[in-house]
Amino acid sequence: MCLGIPMKILRIDKEWAVVEAGRLQRRVNIQMVEGLKAGDYVVVHAGFAIEKVDPVKARQTLTIIDEIH
Amino acid sequence: MKYIDEFRVPRAIRVLTEAIQKESPKDGAVFMEVCGTHTQSFRRFGLHKTLPPGLKLVAGPGCPVCVSSVEYIEKAILYARMPRVILASYGDMLRVPGVSSTLEKERGSGARVRVVYSATEALEVARGNPGYTVIFLAVGFETTAPTVALTVRAAAKEKIGNLYFFSSLKLIPPVMRFLLERRDSRINGFLCPGHVSSIIGIKPYAFIPKSYKIGCCVAGFEPHDMLQGILSLLKQLKERVYSVDNQYARVVKEEGNLRAQRIIADVFESVPAHWRGLGMIEASGLALCRRFARFDAERQIPLKAGALKKSVQSVSACRCQEVLAGRIEPFQCPLFGKACTPGHPLGPCMISSEGACNAYFRYR
Questions:
Q1: What pLDDT does A25 receive?
Q2: Extended beta strands in chain B, E state
Q3: Where are the beta strands (DSSP E) in chain A?
């Protein structure tokens, strides 16, 4: 059950955050991930944020294509 | 959508598929993707059509609903039939066949079966129904385990007295080892599950290149991710240098999510578990540890031994177990697409949204 989508944190309220992707908004539990702030992206699975998305690593993954080409 | 669209760029997909064509060995290769979400995603984007002849990506047992034992379903059904019980479950479980019934059928006969999206919702159901016993079917792998663990802790903190957890939580690295030990099918590389790995990290797979000389690549779920993962496996095969590559570094840290690992260790212990179609696998399941035993459905709500129907093969022609082990592809099952379709499923692989047969049928 790996299903998880990257969602942006709009606001945090203790161990909960309101997150959004497109027009979908959810309230998710953020106890599994430390140091989150509004604007961060997290992978959401079954009502919980399971990890933060690293924007630098994301960019690196994309630019590897240029090395192959 | 951010972190999705950028990984679906046609130009990049083309570059990757061409590189795969170029790197693919003449005598072909078989890679196994362990995660049901990989199976679905791969076929949804039509990527199976981009692979060169001889290069196969087969599905593995990474569908937690598919591998829940018939006995588990039968026990869930018995729980659902008890008076003043509300069964809370992820939606996929409802149509999985036990011996002669499903939770959906039981609901039709009056059982209280509530579909929940999150373990937290099961807690809300318990809070909102103090006169009822709520039993949550905890089904999933390491991605789901910490979410259940946090809910158990929340229930303990709130002193909730009417919520129980019936665990069918399972672990991925042990089943991979089990498949490798059986040596009965060709696996030249593993595409490892992205979100399970975001929890457990890279190290749990290290035994695979080390002891079996088979390459691994942890991959995300977008087309770019999966194709890059396959390319990594091809490169490892070509160079005969095997490791656990991490294509999904934007989400998967080498050490994984340590906090989530601590949460799992605090609430669960590993136990032998029965995998539908594969049998009993040592240390491959999670059960509530003694500290939280009061929330364990199996310990707290015993079922009459005689009430449990003897486990039988569900439908004799169903070949889900071979599909789960990667020995055959869904279309090699005689029931596939004929007697067994998503509208009329006979086996768990067709029922679950993460089942291989379901994916192969929907995106044929």
A1: 95
A2: 29-33, 55-59, 85-89, 112-115, 133-140, 163-169, 189-192, 215-218, 244-246, 268-275, 279-288
A3: 5-13, 16-21, 24-29, 41-45, 48-52
* A62 vs B contacts (CB less than 8 Å): 6-7, 12, 224
Per-residue DSSP letters for B138-177?
EEE-TTTHHHHHHHHHHHHHTT-SSEEEEEEEB-HHHHHH
Q: B88: which DSSP letter?
A: E
Tens of pLDDT along B82-99? 999 999 999 989 988 888
Q: Is B133 within 8 Å of B162 (Cβ atoms)? A: yes
pLDDT for position A48: 97
The residue of chain A nearest to residue B140, with distances taken between CA atoms, is: A1
Q: How far apart are CA B8 and CA B228, in angstroms?
A: 12
0.80 cut: is pTM over it? yes
> Which residue, B298, B246, B296, is CA-closest to B267?
B296
Residue A7 is encoded by which pair of tokens? 């969602």
**Interface confidence (ipTM) of the complex:** 0.95
The residue type found at B298 is E
Tokens 């029922």 sit on residue: B351
The helix or strand, by DSSP H or E, that contains position A23, with its residue range, turns out to be: none
Least Cα separation, residue B191 to chain A (angstroms): 13
Smallest Cα distance from B318 to chain A, Å? 23
- Give CA B221 to chain center in angstroms: 14
Q: Is the pLDDT of residue B283 over 90?
A: yes
Handedness of CA B158, B161, B163, B169 (dihedral sign): positive
Token representation of residue B296 = 């364990």
Burial of A22 (0-12, 13-18, 19+ CB in 10 A): exposed
Strand-pair category, B85-89 with A48-52: unpaired
Q: Give CA–CA dist B237/B95, Å, rounded.
A: 40
Q: Do A32 and B62 touch (CB under 8 A)?
A: no
Contact B200, B142 (CB under 8 A): yes
